[in-house]
Write a structure and sequence with these properties.
This is GlcNAc-PI de-N-acetylase. The protein is α+β, with helices and mostly antiparallel strands. The protein has 3 helices and 2 strands. It has one domain: Rossmann fold, CATH 3.40.50.10320.
Length: 98
């Protein structure tokens, strides 16, 4: 059973991904847009931390974690991304893992 199929049996309704390069300025806006569209209760990503206890975390993993953390904050800020025409959304729980 694939990891995604396993999620379905555990009650996860859908898994979404934003595909973009983390250095792109539009990356954070794209993630915040998806958060506002989908309105998830929880978000999961890799951690932004450098030292993850068993070695050094890879740069792209850190960039993903930081981008999601920023987008979670931004999706709940009514003053930014007003041009999206979407109501702000607060993600209640976020999990960042190594």
């Amino acid at each position: 059973m694939t990891d995604l199929a396993k999620l379905d049996t555990e009650g996860v309704e859908r898994v979404l991904a934003v595909v973009a390069h983390p250095d792109d300025m539009e990356y954070g806006a794209a993630i915040a847009r998806r958060i506002r569209e989908v309105r998830p209760q929880m978000a999961i990503s890799l951690t932004w931390e450098l030292d993850v206890g068993f070695g050094i975390n890879h740069v792209d993993h850190r960039a993903c974690g930081m981008a999601l953390m920023d987008a979670i904050r931004d999706a709940d800020n009514p003053w930014i991304f007003q041009d999206l025409g979407l109501k702000r959304w607060k993600v209640e729980r976020a999990l960042f893992c190594a």
